[in-house]
Amino acid sequence: MTPDDDDAPREAIHDEVPSDEVGAAVVARFPGTVFAESHGQAVVYVDRERWHDVAAFLHDEQRFTQCVDVTAADHLVDVDRRVPSGVSAERFEIVANYLSHPRNRRIRAICEVALDEAEVASIVDVFPGVAFAEREVFDLFGITFAGHDDLTRILMPDDWVGHPLRKDDSPSRVPVTFKEDPGPR
Amino acid sequence: MTDDVINLTPEGRRLESQTDEGAQLLRPRAGDASSREVVLTGGPWPDVDDTMIINMGPQHPSTHGVLRIMMELDGETVLRAKPVIGYLHTGMEKTGEELTFVQGATNVTRMDYASPLSNELVFATAVERLLDLEVPPRATWIRMLMVELNRMSSHLLFQATNGMDLGAVSMMIYGWRERELTLRLLETITGLRMNHNYIRPGGVAADLPDGWQHDTLELCSLVERGVGEYNELLTDNPIWRERTVGVGLITTEQALALGATGPILRSTGFAWDLRRAQPYLAYDDVDFDVIYSEHGDVFDRYQIRLYEILESIKIVRQCVDRMPAGDYRVQDRKVTPPPRARIDESMEALIHHFKLFTEGFRVPAGETYVAVESPRGEIGCYIVSDGTAKPVRLHVRAPSFYNLQSMDAMVPGGMFADAVAIVSSIDPIMGEVDR
User: Fold this and answer.
1) Tens of pLDDT along B187-242?
2) From CA B395, how far away is CA A46, in angstroms rounded?
3) N or C: chain B end with fewer CB closer than 10 Å?
């Protein structure tokens, strides 16, 4: 562990020849996709336009049977972070973890999107199980998924304003009221 | 799949019994699971085309918390069911971004409150992977022991509530009795019945107390006896079978597509268990079976969880036999606090202790996803770190959150009363659904 080692490159370094066969297949099929290895896990950085195509490719041709999780991360306070070469860092990262049961391997797809174009194609038609997860990402990050037929808030109330997991959405924005509170003075 | 899995098909269905009579062969099922007939008495009813939309929950007792299900009914038949969630949303992932990695375990442990140690395990493993930290063997085995004890208590809770939901109220008392014994052992080890904060990055919070072997083995035999009683009470009970066999059918394809994991996936004839498929801790060193069956109905999910208690007991016994000696946490003072006694005599220890609990430790920048098998399925933890002491993003892939969606495949076409049995068999914990 090197806690003070800020100048060290991030774990994920762009490999010219991906060490993972699925990652190699994705990179070969979709030019512009960048393969990286993060703590022994295969990660592909995917273009926004290719998000759905990569999901369909993994499902149809690489026998990935399940998309176990779709989530996102907001890097507003972390904009100068290190990303693998060939990837342009944007504010949001949409993350999908795929699992292939017959091949017993995982791969993670990450897509960088900026605030003004925070939309990707929904992969619900390929993996119906991510319907809830995409709603959650929409609810908490405000990232929309084109083609999702029920993209409504799932965890927050329907009339909620804002997207709580964005870094500029302060948790103290909504004042906590207590019983018999004297109110603002 | 692998050879050493117990097949619960009608031919192979058996209980690995610990009773004196040896292994019991369970009676094969009469008839096909899908050939269930419902005989309606009364009537004739007026022939109306209207369907009715009713809300079940969020306060309905058999929704295990605050789950709301909107159902469209045609008479007693459910046409569509839509789970509505969010009533228990407390922003735990947002809270996780405000807490340091030292404090994080107290947060994640409250998500799935029926199996808190799985949450702690997946969080601690993810942090350790970012730190490139190897925990000592004793810590690994203690973790495995604790997670399996927790799997027992979680499945016992399921047996209790599942019985209660289907009208076997005495089952609730029995299930609760054995669960309480399990929680009592967890309390002697961790100090708390639930929300333990016991598995932490770097190891576990404390060593096992004196006499834990005796307590654990005694618990194992008590729970084993209890499981035998449940089996006798429910498995061949015609009322129980009437309520569960052939109800809430789901196929492997549907379960995989809908993201279902754990006992729901295993009930469809797909023997997938992360403990076996992608071993973590020391699961490749212990002997246990993956329980699966082929009908994909409520009865199978009940029986899989029942037998998984026995498999957990098997693992726990091996943990008692083979618990290695040594440290129960890493001796890296940057990650684990010094022993309490050292603080009185060493300035260094005091500084380390102070720094750890005020600032926490810094985790190198990076991101990782770690998955383990919780009692409900695959629980995953996705952590993004920017090199500070707090995560940029802490996401927990909650198995119940995804498993709830499998209702889409199970509920429509069934009776309204079956919906209760199906929700119960999914065993959702709303704390982790809503986080």
Assistant:
1) 999 999 888 999 999 889 888 999 999 999 999 999 989 988 888 888 888 888 88
2) 21
3) N
CATH code for the domain of B358: 1.10.645.10
Give, for B152, the enclosing helix (H) or strand (E). Answer: helix B137-165
* Closest Cα in chain B, distance from residue A29 (Å): 24
Joined together, the tokens standing for residue B133 give: 């930290």
* pLDDT tens figures, B118-152: 999 999 999 999 998 889 999 999 999 999 999 99
Identify the DSSP state of A160.
-
Name the domain count of chain B: 1
Report d(CA A121, CA B167) in Å as an integer.
45
- Specify the pairing of strand A66-74 against strand A92-100: antiparallel
CA angle B383, B385, B388 (to 5 degrees): 140
Q: At B167, list the tokens.
A: 């009208």
Q: Where would I find the H helices in chain A?
A: 21-29, 51-60, 131-141
Of A99, A138, A158, A167, which to mutate for an interface test with B (greatest number of B Cβ within 10 Å)? A99
Q: How far off is chain B from A31, nearest CA to CA, in Å?
A: 24
Structural domains for chain A: 21-129 (3.30.460.80)
- Cβ count near B35 (within 10 Å): 8
- The domain of B381 spans 97-434
- pLDDT confidence of residue B130: 92
Can you read off the two tokens belonging to residue B334? Answer: 């940057």
Q: What is the mean pLDDT of chain A?
A: 83
Alpha helices by DSSP H, B193-297: 212-230, 238-244, 252-257, 263-266, 274-277
Q: Is A73 on the interface with B (CB under 8 A)?
A: yes
Query: B residues 335-354 near A, CB within 8 Å?
Result: 335
Query: What are the backbone dihedrals phi and psi of residue A158, each rounded to the nearest 5 degrees, phi first?
Result: -60, -30
